[in-house]
Structures are given as C-alpha cells and as structure tokens.
Design a protein that fits this description.
heterodimer, A: 702 residues, alpha+beta, 7-stranded mixed β-sheet, 24 helices, B: 396 residues, mainly alpha, 3-stranded antiparallel β-sheet, 3 strands, 70% helix
C-alpha cells in the first residue's frame, strides 16, 4: 500500500471516530441533559383528557315546573380531522351518511365545514378539533347502522347525549325568556383563558340569549375529566384518573307557567282582534307585534313576560337549520327573535299622563284644581288638538286622566316651558316633566336579568341637540335641494337652523307621551308598579333562586330597588284612584264592560301612540287589585290601533285567566304568587305547592 | 458448492493428517477477528430483542404470535452468518469470479424493482416480492458488489507505490454508474448517499489523484444544487429536508417521525424505561420502528447506557474494520476492508443521526440491528469479507 493510501486511511479513521463522537455527544444531550424535557413530552404524548360534559341545570317556574330541562337524544357527530385524513376528504363517506340521517348532502357538507367557509348558521362555529354534532334527531336504526358498520363511517359517532328540552308547563312557551345555547367560539375560549369568567372547554355549549345566557355560569356545572393513556392512534390503553362532572344548578324563576300561557294567548287574541278592526281611516289594522308583562308590584318579580310573534325554542337544539333561522329573522314575519317586551321601543302615548300629572302637581298645580279641557289648545302659534277625547269643559285632574284629555296636559307643558324661559331658556331649565319621567325609570334600562335590554329614550333638550348634530348635515343639504317655497324646504330650513331648540311643541308632545320619547313595555310596567306599590321603582327579576342539584339554596336572587318616585303618597293615591275609574267610566269602560270589577277592581290607563308612517300603537297599562295592588299588567300591540279597543281587552283577558274569572280556571289560585321555593331532592323537583315530605323532621329537632 | 469446504482448509494444512486438518480448521477459527465477530453478534442479538420489543404489541393486537418477527430476525441472523462464513473463507481468487456474478445479479435485481415485479414497502419502492412472505432488496446486495468490484478494479497488482490512474478511476465510476442510476430511479436517496460516500472513500484510500477527489466533490456540490433548484426531488424528499431544517414546521406531517423519534430517545434518560416498558414504543408513536428507527427502542427502553453501548459496539466494528484495512497484505484487501468501513460508517451515522435529529430522514437500516433479511445478509457478508482479508493477512 502506498504512503498516500496509509495517510488517507488515517484520515478515514479520524473521520469515523469524529462521527462516532458526534453521535455520542448528541445522544448525551438528548438523554442526559434534555432527558427530563423529553420525558414530559412522552407523557403528554400518551395522555389524553376526555371531557365528560356536566348536565346543565333546569330552569323552573315559580312552583317548580320545568320550563327547560334535559332529554337524551341520539346525537351523531362527525370528526373533521378524521374526514380530512380520508383520501377523498370524506366525500364518499358523507354521501353514504346523508341518506341514513335523512339529511340532504349539501346541508350535511355545510354542517361539517368551519365558519366562515360555509354560510351561517349551518357552518361549524365551534372548535375545529371537536367532533361536530350534525343532528340530534337520528333514529335508532341510523345509530345502529353507524355503530355496526364502523369501517364504513370512519370518524362518525352516534351517542346518547343530553340536549335541552322544553316541556312547556301549562302550555307556556317563553321562548324569548329562555334563550338558547350554541357552541363556544375560539374568541370566547381565548377571553376565558385570559382570566375573564369561568374557564370553558372546547366541548362546551354557551347560553346565547335569555336566561340561558344570563345565568350561564350557574346552570353550566363543571365538566368531568377522565385522564387516560392512549397509543398513537388514540386507542385507550389504561385509565389514570377520573374527576366526575358536577351537574349545573337549577334556576328557580318567578315566572308562572300558567300566567305566561294566559299572556301568550291574550297577545295572539289581541293581534287577531286588531286584524278584524279598522284604522281611523278604515284600513284594517296590521297588528304586527305585541308584548305583555305581568309584574308583582310588591316584590318587583316578573310573573310573565311575553312577546308576539314567538317561535318554538326547540329549533335551536342541535344547531338551528337555515330555514328556521331565516324564519326567526325575517322582516315580513315580524322578526320573531326580538323580544318586544324588553327590546321593543314605542311611544308611551297617554299612558305617560300619570307622569305628567305628578310633574304638574309637583310644579305647583293644585291636585284638587279644576282645569279647562277644550277641543284644542294653542301652543305658541300652533294649534294642538285633543286626540283622545271630546271637549269636556272644566275638569278635575281625575277626569282628565279618566277621559284622557290632552289639552289639559298641553297647557301644563306649555306653561312650564314658558316658565323655563321659552325659546331662550336659562342655563339650567327645570323641565319638571323630563325630570319626573327619569324618576319613574324611563330612558334607561330597568336592569332586568335578561341580556340585550333596550333603554328607551327621553326626548329632552340634550337629546334634541344630539339628534340635530347628527342630522343637520343631511337636512341642511336637503334645505337647498328642495324647490324654493315648498313645505319640505321650509321644514328643512327650519330644522337646519333651529332644530336643536326644545320648542313649545316638543314640550306639549312630551306631556302626552308622543313625539320622540320611547319606552319598552317592561319600563312602563315598572313605572306603573311603582305607582301601585307606593313609589318603589324596582329593577325587576325573573330569577328567584339558584338551587343545587341536591336542593341547597346556592343563591337567593332579590329584585333591586332602583329608586323611589319623588311624589307624595297622597298624589300617588289620587292618581291610583283616578286610574281605577278608567275601566269603570273612562276610556276602557267598553273593554271592561261586564268584568266583575267589584271582585277584582282594576286600575289602568289606555294609550294610542302615533307613529310616523305606521298605524297607532295600542297600549293598556294597569294594576290590580286597585285598592291593594298586587300585579301590574301591561299589553302593547304594535299597529294595533286604539288602546281601548285592542290592548285593554287583552289585559282584561289576562286578569280573567290569572284570577279565574268569567268561568276560566285560575292560573294563580288566590291571586297570590307562591312565597316559598320549590324543593329539589336528589335532582328531582318537588313542586312548591305540595308540602315537603320530610321537612317536619327538621322542625321537630329544631 | 464444492469449493467452500476446501476453502475452509488453510493451504499450509492441506496435506496433513485428519487430526492436523481439524487443528488447521481450528487455526482458521483461531485466527478470526473474534473482537469483530463478537461485536457483530452482540449487535445482532440486541437488535433482535429490540425488534421483539418494537413489534410484539402490534402483533399481539393483530392476533399473531408476538415473537414472530423476533424469530424471523434470528433466522435472518442464522442465514446471514452462513453467507458471511462463505465470504470469510472463500479464496480471494474466487472472489474475482463471484464478484461479477453478484454485480450482474444485483443490477438485474435493481432493474426488476423498476418493473411491475417491484413492490413498495414502507414508502420505499426498492423491493422484489418473492412470495411466501419473502422479499429481497437488491440495493443491499449491490453494496456488496460495489465494494468487491471497486477493490478489484483499483487493487490490481501494480508497481510498488504506484497509484491508480485516470483509467482506473473512470472504470470505477463506470462500474458504479449503473447501480447508482437504478437506485436513484427508485428513488432511494439514502442508499444512493451510501454509494457516494463509499465510492469516494474507496477512491481516496486507493490513492487516486487528489485532482479527481477535489473534482468529484465539486461535481457533487454542483449536482446537488442543480437537483434542488431544478426540482428533481420528490415532494416528500423536499419535505423531509425542510422538516429537518425546522422540525416544528409540520409536527404532524413530515416532521412527525423525527419529533417522535427524538421524544422516544430523549425520554429514555440515563438508564431507560426498561425493556418492553417504553411508552413511545408500546404506543406505536414512532413509525418504522423495527427497521429504520430501531435505535429509538434502544434509546427509550435501555437509556443512555444501552444506546451508548450499541454505539460503542458499532464503533468497535468500524475500528476493527479499519485495523484490518491497515494490516491487509495487499491493496485489494485493504480496499475491500476500507470500502466496507466507509459503507457501514456512513450508514450508521446517517441512521442514528436521523433518529437523533442531526441528519434528515432517509430510509436506511441500522447495520446489524434493524429488522430485515436483505440488509442483515449484506451486512454479514461485509463482515465476512473483513474476516477474509483478516485471515489472509494472518496467514501471510
């Protein structure tokens, strides 16, 4: 062998040794230095957490009848990851699954597609790593087919799962109150991880509306976690630990299934009645929407809260279909998803006069004074007509309320407006009516335990300025575009320069609840409840208590006092007495003809709200018994015409149903809401009305 | 097959009595490189147990005998030992006759792989299925043919200290070109790289002109650049290289093997989790674990102590091979031995390097340890060749 070869052999030896040393070094690093890190990685590799969902708590009515509970449904889920692993991305498998589930293939495909790659609401908005439930209506045959032919349906599971069920006690629907659930979104998961609220899991459903959203944390419970060791294909090799799920708590509400049903029916009847009646000019009333509220004036608790049109809350279970979602949000169907009772804003019309009366008395007009009620009244240069009534001559405030005379209140408003300085007010005008309206809780949210409440609007000086600032640009442009001398141009020019002013006409309209002031039916109910209970303005509550699955009272939910009316008790008593005359001899006398007012004296006020471009809003706002008020009942029918003809009969129907008058069974026997809580024992609800079976033991020992 | 019993008998003992002949045979045995043989047998034995550990769970799940592959590997070892013995004891003149036959046979085999006779196993299209559960990988035997062929071409008797000339180098390149081309067509990048390293190493040891060596390196660099830029690599090969550069890029895809392999090895720690106790191994997290990723089983279950011992044993084999090359009594023997060392050294480094995440993932078995018939046969024949050279130098 040549010297060169020998030399090169030495080089080869050095090379081989250095390669071996390299491997040794790397091995040392991986196993000795970084060994712990990799040991942890190996642990994570083989550990999986399997989430055992917690049973969500029930929502109960005042006597313990479930409004929402759970039922087991056969839920078929598709694992998206497993689909993507298939060569054709699962196309063949989905085509096989579609007829089995009786679901059109395009719909099935959209359901297993992540948002926003498929149209809402079918697309999957939950976690991409979570098996996607495609239906909870799979039959046993379909489930068996899937389970028996696993190899034909890779990534598809069929299992019994708890889903929400709506038993509709006494026929009460309450869709707007109860709300619905939908899968947690990635954004929510991130927010919860960042420390806001309970930590959520990818599998979780979250309350999206109504009580389900408001009391989500209480109802949810804590999911169980099973820790298992798995191999690389996810097959479980052994169990390492088990934390069982903690079921969610039950929510007891003050809603009464029977009363809720009565209110819901009364709204349907009221709308039907409106359809059979004509407008002032004879066109049939459209009666597009309605709302009804029943409040316990003494406690501020909600007994019933209904909105028309309504829908079946079960459409949300297992993911809503396109058809249903369109129906819920369709303009021509009246957007059934909206709760008119807490989200609808309407002009209060004459129902506002109780507030105007209180304001006038506070401003110095004698309670026992006599005031002229002419057919029209000049406010500055404009003539304001008496809409609701004929000229009555000189009247007391009592009569002005009973007959709903507008001109009396125009005068109060105009004189107060002049007193505040008229067109050139001082730096701090008193605005007694605006101040009084705010004190009665209008213009801000009542704070009820429901999400998405509307705040209404008080069209005061500040609002006018804001509105003018927002609108002036486009209106001033109109002022130059309209033909010179036209009425439109005149109005535009006036608004452009003076639109920010709170003028005499604004004050007059404000006094009779017309113009730009808006209220929700719930706001009016709380205002009248305050009038009825002697001045307490409640922040109403639907939730009454949170009970644990074994019956412990976790939390008592009390309505909050939001304020007190700045009105002396004699004035409130005077107004109450006047309203008690409305169904007897006033504007609602026709509606209450034949009603046993001697057995149940009702006090109330009609209202007919004028809406630009729409038919009148029909109102009747009431409380009863008039001499010892227990409940406030409000009905509003949008495009329902006169309050006396449509809303008042609906309120009458509600009282009849609650108290069992006119041959009807009483939804609230004795006219009293239950005071105690229903008893829950071993997750079974015992109605509040039935005596607890073992409570005696506790009493004896105590 | 009448040749090899005669070859067992060393020439000097040929005309002695029966007792002497037994002693002579014993002398052949006595003169074997026992350190080399011991290291190889230790590696193969440990390898078989590791194969057992890697496959028993899966076989059991499938309802088969959990020791099936372990037994099969022992059979592979036995057959391989037999083939190795032949290679060790055959007269080296006869090697000149057999070498072209092995060369032609393996080239034919490589061609057959490209025809419909070829089969894809574990993502590598380099097999011929013989039926009855047997399959061969011709590229393994091509390595043997290459080693002997190159030694023949470069190790011709020349004047003292004369180095191979241009003609010899060209002849070697021509010899290697055909199997190389066929292997690249499969495509089997790992084996092709073993070829390149072995050819280059053997040329260098043979004393080929430095200009050739430098030129080959430059040509290699240019060719690699061209292959990369012209997109001649298969998609999965590119992915493996990018996954190597950045394993976190695609932890479920191309980087998966590498990541899981490193977790398996790293989690073994100093003393390992114990034989049959590896969670990565039992959980089937590392693909191709009984073949290309067998070292992960050692790393996880036997720890640094066990895996380090395997590395040491491989080091012993390589250094004994180099010792044999240095002591060879002719250039032919020295070249055979150093070619074998180049082959085994590169394959060892590439295989363990990829399990440890310092080399890209390519499909190459770990010599003597990985499961597989063809590679075991080829590796043991290579050891047999080393022993052959060793025995000749002892007799000289």
């Amino acid at each position: 062998m040549s010297e060169r070869s020998r030399l090169r052999l030495v080089v080869l030896r050095v090379l081989v040794v250095s390669l071996l040393v390299t491997l040794f070094g790397r091995l040392w690093y991986l196993q000795v230095i970084a060994g712990d890190t990799y040991a942890r990685a190996a642990q994570d590799n083989q550990l999986r957490e399997i989430v055992d969902p917690a049973t969500r708590g029930q929502i109960l009515d005042d006597v313990g009848r479930p409004l929402v509970r759970n039922r087991t449904a056969m839920v078929v889920s598709v694992d998206r990851i497993a689909l993507l692993r298939q060569r054709d991305r699962g196309a063949v498998m989905l085509a096989r699954l579609s007829p089995l589930l009786g679901m059109p293939l395009p719909e099935l495909r959209q359901r297993v597609t992540l948002c926003p790659h498929a149209p809402r609401p079918l697309c999957w908005n939950g976690s991409p790593y979570q098996p996607i439930p495609v239906t909870d209506r799979a039959g046993t045959a379909a489930a068996l087919a899937i389970l028996e032919r696993r190899e034909q349906f890779p990534g598809v599971t069929a299992e019994l799962t708890a889903v929400r069920d709506f038993p509709k006690p006494a026929g009460a629907n309450a869709a707007h109150l109860l709300g619905y659930l939908s899968p947690v979104t990635d954004a929510e998961l991130a927010a919860r991880k960042a420390g806001k609220g309970q930590v959520l899991l990818r599998t979780d459903l979250v309350g999206r509306a109504g009580l389900e959203a408001e009391y989500d944390a209480a109802l949810r419970g804590v999911p169980g976690v099973r820790r298992v060791a798995v191999d690389s294909v996810g097959a479980v090799t052994r169990e390492l630990g088990d934390r069982p799920p903690v079921p969610g708590d039950h929510l007891v509400t003050s809603l009464d299934g029977g009363v809720q049903r009565v209110v819901e029916d009364a709204l349907v009847h009221a709308v039907e009645r409106a359809h059979s009646l004509g407008d002032r000019d004879g066109t049939p009333l459209r009666g597009t929407a309605a709302a009804g509220v029943v409040l316990d004036v003494r406690t501020g608790r909600v007994v019933a809260l209904a909105s028309y049109p309504t829908y079946d809350p079960a459409v949300w279970v297992g993911g809503i279909s396109v058809k249903h979602y369109r129906a819920l949000t369709a303009q021509d169907a009246g957007i059934p998803l909206l709760s008119r009772a807490v989200q609808g804003e309407f002009a209060p019309a004459s129902t506002f006069k109780v507030i105007s009366t209180a304001a006038a008395v506070q401003a110095g007009y004698p309670l026992d004074g006599v005031y002229a009620c002419p057919g029209s009244y000049s406010v500055g240069s404009r003539l304001f007509r008496n809409f609701d009534s004929q000229p009555l001559g000189p009247v007391t405030l009592h009569t002005a309320l009973v007959k709903s005379c507008d001109t009396v209140f125009y005068r109060f408003a105009y004189e107060m407006w002049l007193h505040d300085g008229g067109t050139s007010p001082g730096p701090a005008p008193a605005d007694p009516m605006v101040t009084m309206a705010k004190a009665w809780g209008l213009g801000r949210k009542t704070g009820i335990d429901l999400p998405s409440e509307s705040s209404g609007r008080i069209a005061d000086r500040a609002w006018k300025k804001r509105y003018w600032a927002a609108m002036k640009k486009s209106v001033c442009a109109d002022a130059t575009r309209e033909p010179p001398g036209s009425y439109a141009r005149q109005v535009a020019v006036e608004f452009c320069s003076d639109g920010w002013r709170f003028r005499a006409g604004d004050a007059a309209n404000f006094a009779i609840g017309q113009g730009d002031t808006l209220v929700t039916p719930l706001q009016l109910a709380t205002a009248y409840a305050a009038l009825a209970n002697g001045g307490t303005v409640w922040s109403p509550r639907i939730g009454k208590a949170v009970l644990s699955p074994n019956g412990r009272v976790v939390e008592r939910i009390e309505p909050r006092v939001r304020g007190r009316l700045p009105v002396p008790p004699p004035v409130l008593a005077y107004i109450r007495e006047a309203l008690a005359g409305v169904p007897v001899s006033g504007t609602a006398a026709g509606a209450f003809a034949g009603f046993p007012l001697d057995r149940l004296p009702v006090a109330g006020k009609t209202g007919t709200g004028q809406v630009l471009g729409k038919q009148d809003t029909s109102w009747f706002v009431s409380f009863a018994p008039a001499n010892a008020p227990q409940f406030a009942v409000v009905v509003m029918v949008a495009e329902g015409g006169q309050g006396a003809r449509v809303a008042a009969p609906a309120v009458r129907e509600i009282y009849e149903g609650m108290y069992g008058l006119a041959g009807r069974p009483a939804a609230l026997p004795g006219g009293q809401p239950p005071t105690g809580l229903p008893v829950v024992r071993n997750n079974v609800v015992v109605p509040a009305s039935s005596p607890p079976t073992s409570a005696g033991d506790g009493r004896r020992s105590g | 097959m009448t040749e090899w019993p005669r070859a067992l008998v060393a020439p000097r003992a040929a005309r002695r009595g029966p007792v002497s002949r037994v002693l002579a045979r014993a002398s052949a045995l006595r003169h074997l490189d026992w350190v080399l043989l011991g290291a190889v047998l230790a590696l193969a034995g440990v390898g078989s147990v590791l194969v057992w550990s890697a496959t028993r769970e899966e076989l059991e799940r499938a309802g088969d005998d959990p020791t099936a592959l372990f037994k099969r590997q022992l059979l592979n070892l036995a057959i391989g030992m037999l083939l190795g013995s032949v290679a060790a004891l055959v007269d080296h003149r006869q090697l000149r006759i057999y070498a072209p036959l092995v060369y032609v046979a393996s080239c034919l085999g490589l061609v057959a792989v490209l025809t419909p006779l070829g089969a894809t196993i574990n993502g590598s299209h380099s097999w011929i299925v013989l039926g009855g559960g047997f399959q061969v990988q011709p590229s393994e035997f091509a390595k043997v043919a290459l080693v002997v062929g190159m030694a023949l071409l470069l190790g011709k008797q020349r004047q003292r200290d004369a180095s191979p000339g241009h003609v010899d180098v060209l002849a070697v390149l021509a010899l290697a070109a055909l199997p190389m081309a066929l292997i690249v067509l499969q495509p089997d990048l790992g084996t092709a790289m073993v070829f390149v390293f072995t050819i280059f190493g053997t040329l260098a040891i043979s004393g080929a002109p430095s200009r050739w060596l430098v030129g080959l390196v430059l040509a290699g660099v240019v060719a690699a650049g061209a292959v990369w830029h012209l997109g001649l690599l298969e998609d999965y090969q590119v992915k493996r290289f990018t996954a190597f550069a950045n394993p976190a890029a695609d932890i479920r895809g191309a980087g998966y093997n590498s990541t899981q392999a490193r977790i398996a090895v790293g989690s073994g720690g100093v003393v390992g989790k114990g034989l049959f106790q590896g969670s990565q191994t039992n959980g089937d997290f590392v693909p191709a674990q009984q073949t290309d990723f067998i070292f992960t089983v050692a790393g996880e279950e036997l720890g640094f102590v066990g895996a380090g011992s395997i590395l040491l044993l491989l080091g012993v084999v390589l250094l004994r091979g180099l010792r044999i090359a240095t002591r060879a009594d002719d250039l032919f023997g020295a070249l055979v031995a150093s070619a074998v060392v180049c082959w085994l050294a590169f394959q060892t480094f590439q295989n363990i390097g990829m399990t440890l995440g310092i080399m890209p993932v390519t499909g190459l078995p770990l010599p003597f340890v990985s499961y597989g018939g063809s590679s075991m046969f080829a590796n043991l024949v290579a050891v047999g060749l080393l022993q052959n050279v060793h025995l000749r130098s002892m007799r000289a």
